[in-house]
Each structure stands twice: as structure tokens, then as C-alpha cells.
Amino acid sequence: MRLFVVASLAVFAVTPALAQTDQARLEQCIEKIDRDAEGAYQDGLTWQAIGNPPAARQCTALALIALGEEAEGAARLEELANAPEAGSADMRAVYLAQSGNAWLMAGMAEQANVTLTNALKLRPGDGELFKDRARARVALKQWAEAGDDLDGAIIQSAGDAESFRMRGHVRLKQGRLSEAWQDVEAAMKLAPRDVNVVVLRGDVREAMRREGMEDPAGLDQALEPRARIVGN
């Protein structure tokens, strides 16, 4: 998960707002992080010594995250987002998104919630940011707030199976079992082979069984014995 988050967010961070040379160097740093995070970190420090551009600071922060120093990397990215030279609102939102995910990876959900809220102020229509903040709120057991974020994510991208799965999990925690099942079914249609969706489907069915609710999958009737065996 660590490398996936770093790589996916870092690719998003490469934008025309960066100087061309800085952009190319940041891309090289991101590529190196996957195979040699320590080397990428050292390269970033050398780069920072020459003018300390935002891209160099981002490079070193991402490398630290990949090295397991998630909290330190998160703090550096958040500091960068608030720096006068950070760039456009979109770039600041990128740094905050990366920081928020790093706080989550460090197990610091409260900080992640605050940072991702600030990112959403800069990019209020970003469905991925809604999902990120929902993860922080799930970790904090703020079920209603997490559900609201996932509503926002689904509005932005109705074809995202993960958003439906996450909201199904939240509704399960809230005891809203029929609605949880609807989300599971939507996620199953979009990603029928996703193991996480299949597991959640089983969890919701079991919760409904414990509550004495009818099996939403209709398997109870299928498992009833026949009243008459043909030929007898």
C-alpha cells in the first residue's frame, strides 16, 4: 500500500505548474523511489542544496514516506503546501493530499482528517480526496461524516466500485443494513471479482441474518429441501 499511495499521488503531482527542468527531475526522483528510496532521498537533498525548489522538497518528502518515515514526510509536505513558493492552489492541494495519505499511513488519522479537509477546500470537487478523508474518518469511527464524504465521492464518480464498497462498510457499521446491501450490490456490478467487495457482501449478509432479516441474496429458499423428489 505504501508504494502504491506514493506512486499514484506523485504522478498526479507532476503538472505544468512546475518548471520544465524541475518537472523532469521530479519524475526521475519518483521513478527512483520505487527501486531505491534511500538513493532518491540523497538525490533530493543534493537538489535541495541548489536553490531548495518545491519539487526537490517534495522529492525528499516522498522518499522519506517510502522509507517508512511517514509522519516526517507528511509534516514536510504539509509545510511545503503552506510555503509562499508552493505554487498554485492545485499544487498546494496535491501536497496536502499526499500529506494526508502519509498521516494515514502513519496511523495518525486526526492529522489526516485536518490536512485532507484543507485539501478539499482547494479542490472541492475531487472525488479521490473525498475518499481519502472518508478513510481518515472511518479510522476515527466518525461514521456519519465518512458516509457524507463517500456520498460526495459517488456524486463525482458514480462508476467507482471502491466508493460504493467503502460506503457499504460505513452503513454496515451504522446498522443501516438494507442500504449497505444496496451499496454492496452496486460495487459487485462494477467489480465482481474484487475480493474486498465479496468479503463485505458476506459480512452484510451475516449481519442481516443475525437481525432476522430475509436473505437479500435469495439463497435461503434455494437451500430448502424439495417437497417432492421427481420419480418418487
Structural class: mainly alpha
Shape: elongated
How many strands, which pairing sense, and closed or not: the largest β-sheet? Answer: none
Give the total of domains.
2
Q: Average pLDDT across residues?
A: 89
Q: Residue ranges: pLDDT <50 for 5 or more in a row?
A: 1-8, 10-14
- For the secondary structure, the number of strands is 0
- N- to C-terminal separation? 58 Å
**Rg result:** 22 Å
The string of secondary-structure elements, in order, is: HHHHHHHHHHHHH
Helix content: over 70%
Describe this structure in words.
This protein is an all-alpha fold. The radius of gyration is 22 Å and the shape is elongated. It has 13 helices and no strands. The termini are far apart. Residues 1-8 and 10-14 have low confidence and may be disordered. 74% of the residues lie in helices and 0% in strands. The chain folds into 2 domains: 1-123; 125-214, Tetratricopeptide repeat domain (Serine Threonine Protein Phosphatase 5, Tetratricopeptide repeat).
Per-chain topology:
Elements: H1 2-13, H2 20-35, H3 37-48, H4 54-66, H5 70-81, H6 89-105, H7 109-122, H8 127-139, H9 143-156, H10 161-174, H11 177-190, H12 195-210, H13 219-222
Helix pairs in contact: 1-2, 1-6, 2-3, 2-4, 3-4, 4-5, 5-6, 6-7, 6-8, 7-8, 8-9, 9-10, 10-11, 10-12, 11-12
Features:
disordered N terminus, Serine Threonine Protein Phosphatase 5, Tetratricopeptide repeat, 2 domains, mainly alpha, 13 helices, single chain, elongated, 232 residues
